Amino acid sequence: MYTLKKAYLEITNICNLSCSFCPGTKRPTGSLSPDGFSTLAQRIRPHTQYLYLHLMGEPLLHPQLEQILQIAHDLDFRVILTTNGTLLPKRSALLCQSPAVWKVSISLHSFEGNSFSPDSSCYFDHCLAFAQQLSQCGKRCVLRLWNLDGPDSPGSNTQNKAIVDRIAQSFPPPWKTDWQGTTIAPQVYLEWGERFQWPDLSLSQQEEQGFCRGLRDQVGILWDGTVVPCCLDHEGDIPLGNLYHQSLEEILESPRAKALYDGFSQRRAVEPLCRRCGYRQRFSR
Ligand code: SF4
Questions:
Q1: Residue 84 in contact with residue 119, Cβ under 8 Å?
Q2: Ligand 1 pocket residue status of 248, Cβ below 6 Å
Q3: What is the pTM of this model?
Q4: Ligand 1 touching residue 273 (CB < 6 A)
């Protein structure tokens, strides 16, 4: 039996934003029905308790999110949602009340990744009020700023200082920072990350040497049931099987999945997509 730390199940690949850092997808748009979610989630559950409701797409857009969270609760999943934050005013009560929801990550870097100009103070007001509300319900909330410029540049982008100042108004310091990140209040975290190059077959090939935790810690399932090795295979370029027609065990035992896994065991990226993935640089440092 394969045990994974987490699985990414794409409940919709539709998004209400078009962020500059996100490659989007050319796959047909679609969403999982509650029945489809139930079928796929039951096949995932023996392998992990931690279920992310995205690969691409904005999960809070799903019209039957409440039913999906109920099914996840019935299966005893710990659900993690990653959202751009724009729909939190409509969804906060559901997220706070659902026993399945374990953590919500808000991609605050969506703000600088868009040309839209929502009233910035409203956007942050809603996100930060939600973080307070969620933590009061005993659930975790992560405020993400995954927009740092990398080790060779001066650091964060130009808006981050103002954003962090705004966060400090809602969550007054002192904050506690350790190797895992910054805790700004009980159950509320501020998470920094560098921008990275999403894998894409149109990019030029990088070196073959390298490591990644795809299929080792995680697996992704697209809304049509296609299983991929990670949450970054946004086009389904490494289709390993289909969870509607095969068990996850069978898919992970397939020659293509085993070759990817064994390749990384030998510090080699076997798949062309993996040779064009900036994310795996994180495992090289
Ligand atoms: S190297 Fe990139 S594309 Fe390949 S499995 Fe890892 S995260 Fe996914």
A1: no
A2: no
A3: 0.94
A4: yes
